[in-house]
Specification:
Elements: E1 3-8, H1 17-27, H2 37-43, E2 49-53, E3 56-57, E4 62-63, H3 66-75, E5 80-82, E6 84-85, H4 93-103, E7 109-111, H5 113-116, H6 123-135, E8 139-141, H7 161-167, E9 173-175, H8 183-192, E10 196-199, H9 207-219, E11 226-227, H10 237-245, H11 247-253, H12 261-269, H13 272-275
Parallel strand pairs: 1-2, 2-5, 6-7, 7-8, 8-9, 9-10, 10-11
Antiparallel strand pairs: 3-4
Helix pairs in contact: 9-11
The chain binds zinc ion.
Zinc ion binds near residues 6, 8 and 231.
Length: about 280
Amino acid sequence: MIVDVHTHVWRREHWSEELARESQRARGSPVWLEVTEEAYAQALRVVDRAIVFGLRARHVGLLVPNDFVAGFVRRFPEKLIGFASVDPQEPSYMVELERAIEDLKLRGVKLGPVYQNVHPMDKRMRSIYEYCERRHLPILIHQGTTFARRAPLRFASPLLLEEVAFAHPDLVMIIAHLGHPWIAETIVLIRKHPNLYADISALHYRPWQFYNGMMLALEYGVMEKLFFGSDYPFATPQEAIEGVRGINDFARRWSLPPLPDEAIAWILERDALRLLGLS
Ligand SMILES: [Zn+2]
């Protein structure tokens, strides 16, 4: 069973002009900002289950409504688990969180402190953690760098999550993209905190970093805490699966030691939903 723990849905109108421009500049090609249910279903055919979310971050100009995400889940209920996103800069964010969980039946939360312009230990963030810890809702958190110019990198380091883990030891958090480029920080964190995990999305197209990150994870014995993710629509699950399976082509080409085949298989076949309490 392949579980994609990191897929996005949004429409063009959820993005500010500025953020769309910056995203395009960073990638060097247009970014797919119009995710229709049909396109999503087609791209997700190669995975068995997926976690889907938008993001709410007024500071950088991305506001995906939770109702929009819930609409995708209703359309593909056997495949999808929806996560809410709330922006602590919005006054009624806790009301929206409760509504998204209780009424819309979303089952986890997506946060991005660097996009939302808040410190991960900000008082407003703590209310979200408390809510999620009490209800066993996992948080997928973008704690890593970004292309968005307005996003302050001082809030981006994965190590800032250690205080969160100390204060909320039962809170389950998945650090997106292995916290790139601070992958070593993420690995030492997930090694020592039982409820911290990471996903490997958005790394296969940076093969040097991806290869080294996987080797580091292997050497520190944290392979079992990594989940597969595509970061759709930035990459399709098919491209991400090929990227993971092709990691040893990269190793061979540059005469580097290969990653054990079992490690690659574990990542793709791990039942992430069970480990996250979502099955
Ligand atoms: Zn993402």
